[in-house]
Design goal:
elongated; mainly alpha; Four Helix Bundle (Hemerythrin (Met), subunit A)
Amino acid sequence: MSQASGVLHEPFTSGVRQREATIFAIWIFLASELLLFGGMFFAFYTYRHAHTSGFDGGARHTNLLFGAINTALLLTSSFAMSVAGRALEVKRAALAEVCIWVTLALGVGFLGVKGLEYVQDLHEHLWPNTRFDGADPASRIFFGFYWTMTFIHSCHLLIGLGFLIRLGIMARARVLEANSDSVETTSLYWHLVDVIWIMVFTTLYLVGK
């Protein structure tokens, strides 16, 4: 979005300056998140290089169907979020509100599918404990990464749902257009969640199958 926010907050006296500061802040935050996940991916592939067979064995236990469904849900949600931002730009507040709630629903669907997958994993003892069902001990390391990465990602997605609820309430109150910076920052955050999931999906579900 190119317009400045219509609501000024201290200490800003200019909508343009406020928008620039807001966007700069969200990009700094997103960069820190990339460093966090980047460190996990670096550690994962370092261990995988040392224990290739064990990690490949662990990957074969991940549920590709659940992972693919969640990937489709998040990709669709990112599209809906983009449409919401564009709708707000062209003064179609009703469409923007619908797209925000659609994005929220798809995000909730993601968590639901992930919850079902976690239930299956626990039932099959696919987590790094003493009852782990895996022939190679290195597979326990794989599932240590699996649970850490997917849980942290799910926490980030849950935070994003909170942002979307806030946007939905603002849209219902017809004050969203005056707070367009909130849409842009939430959109950037949601797209980051999407991009990170694609990397997680590729790393945990596809590599080594």
